[in-house]
Write a structure and sequence with these properties.
Chain lengths: ~110, ~110
């Protein structure tokens, strides 16, 4: 039973445009949400996070939005760069447990 | 200066064997984890462990067992390996509270 879902397995975006990656969750007890970036043959690396008491967190080109009523999380990357091409996982935390989505493979086309 | 390191990076072995994967973190984190990434790329939690409790995902076969000699290490032992155990196994650690996990680079286990 997957509590965190990423329904788009892949996304292609032109360099310089906005990339929007989406994530839905089912457990209202989640209180902390994260996005990770993963390159092939490497482990996921932390990108940005947001607490459940906020609805937006920004870090440079990366912004995470949280809509608690819709149980929806999104990551915006502006402007997208070819080096952003990777698999992006969203995750949610309850207590000491993290739950991951299945990932979205982002390709930024030069 | 690797924060979370796991060895070996690749492990090829035969069905029925017993193997171990080691994990060490130098971040001073309280909690360590093991994940299995299957062929569908889903990161599934297997265990989380700190000095207070071990939480085991009930779907994990008892052939898998975590061993923590100290706070900085959480090794994964697997007995009687099966074909379905082929996957990438990731170790991670985190601090308590709203803090992200840090991951190792994974161990690619292939069962012949």
């Amino acid at each position: 039973d997957q509590q965190v879902k990423q329904n788009s397995p892949s996304l292609s975006v032109q360099e310089g445009r906005i990339s929007i990656l989406n994530c839905d969750y089912t457990n209202s007890m989640f209180d902390y949400f994260l996005w990770y970036k993963k390159y092939p043959a490497e482990g996921p690396t932390f990108l940005i996070s947001i607490s459940s008491i906020k609805d937006k967190n920004e870090d440079g080109r990366f912004t995470v939005f949280l809509n608690k009523s819709a149980k929806h999380l999104s990551l915006h990357i502006v402007p997208s760069q070819p080096g952003d091409s990777a698999v992006y996982f969203c995750a949610a935390k309850n207590g000491n447990q993290f739950y991951f989505g299945t990932g979205t493979s982002l390709t930024v086309i030069p | 200066d690797t924060a979370v390191s796991q060895t070996p990076k690749y492990l090829v072995t035969q069905m029925g064997n017993d193997k171990s994967i080691k994990c060490e973190q130098n971040l001073g984190h309280d909690t360590m984890y093991w994940y299995k990434q299957d062929s569908k790329k889903f990161l599934k939690i297997m265990f989380s462990y700190n000095n207070k409790e071990l939480i085991i995902n009930e779907t994990v076969p008892n052939r898998f067992s975590p061993k923590s000699p100290d706070k900085a290490h959480l090794n994964l032992h697997i007995n009687s390996l099966e074909l379905g155990d082929s996957a990438v196994y990731f170790c991670a650690s985190s601090q308590e509270g709203n803090q992200p996990q840090h991951f190792g680079d994974g161990t690619r286990l292939s069962i012949l």
